[in-house]
Design goal:
By secondary structure, this protein is mostly helical. Helices cover 77% and strands 0% of the residues. It has one domain. The radius of gyration is 19 Å and the shape is globular.
């Protein structure tokens, strides 16, 4: 029994991290459950710090999402060796980013009380500085940077976002008039763009369970675009319509989680393809 349990843990949890083989149904469900439970703990922490997860907070957290995505590329580039590189592989990197983010937040709240400055300025700047360090590491170690791939992914992602918002405006679809909802969808569409282009025109592979299944079933990576729209928009609608009486911090954190699982891999994939890693 002990041997079987050990083999199970190695196969579904440890090996995917050590060998960076991606996700499987077992660890995907596990990490999703841990993420859901963690949200409640974060809500309690934010309530204690008297911080509201509003639009300003979410935009202030965005640099940490970029830091996480770019830090993942630092591992892809082989800049960090084992065993430290395992901390930069999913899901451990999410825990790393979380603890650094919380530490920066508490430091910023302390500065607010000491020098009477809005907490979100130092909080956001710490994330920006961390992201800049990651970009500097990648720049100094990279052989080349393909600006055309970088520009293509960003331009297609932005164009699709504008198209969706134009249609939403014509239909008077109020959901996407909310800037946080718009940011969440932007992150998901950028992820779809990077994934679709990378799998179609470059030698990359999908590591997530559901997208990989749908890509194999349809025979095209461009299925990611309708998938993102079909999933993200209804989820945001449900959150705004049926959870509006719940804790504002819980609602904000759920949206932040959705933003993170879209924008972080989008940043990673875009940088990887641009750097040829």
């Amino acid at each position: 029994m002990v041997v079987d349990l050990g083999s199970f843990i190695n196969e579904y949890y440890i090996n995917p991290i050590i060998y960076d083989t991606g996700y499987n149904p077992v660890n995907t469900i596990t990490w999703a459950i841990i993420l859901g439970l963690s949200l409640f703990g974060v809500v309690k922490l934010l309530n204690k710090l008297k911080i509201t997860v509003d639009e300003v907070f979410i935009f202030a957290v965005t640099p940490y999402i970029f830091a996480g995505g770019s830090l993942r590329v630092v591992e892809d580039a082989g800049i960090v060796a084992a065993p430290y590189k395992y901390l930069l592989i999913t899901p451990l990197i999410y825990f790393l980013i979380f603890f650094v983010c919380v530490a920066a937040l508490m430091l910023s709240v302390g500065l607010k009380r000491a020098v009477h400055i809005n907490y979100y300025w130092p909080f956001a700047m710490i994330g920006v500085a961390w992201s800049a360090i990651n970009v500097w590491l990648l720049y100094t170690s990279a052989v080349s940077f393909n600006v055309w791939i970088f520009a293509l992914i960003l331009s297609v992602g932005v164009a699709l976002s504008f198209l969706v918002y134009a249609i939403a405006h014509l239909l008077n679809f109020a959901l996407l008039k909310d800037r946080v909802n718009a940011l969440v969808l932007d992150g998901q569409l950028l992820d779809a763009t990077a994934t679709s282009l990378g799998l179609t025109f470059l030698p990359y592979a999908e590591k997530h369970v559901l997208p990989n299944f749908l890509i194999e079933a349809t025979g095209t990576a461009f299925v990611m675009f309708p998938l993102k729209l079909i999933v993200t928009i209804p989820v945001l609608f449900i959150i705004d319509q049926y959870l509006k009486n719940e804790s504002k911090n819980l609602i904000g954190l759920v949206k932040l989680a959705i933003l993170t699982v879209g924008l972080a891999p989008a940043i990673r994939d875009t940088l990887r393809m641009s750097l040829g890693i």
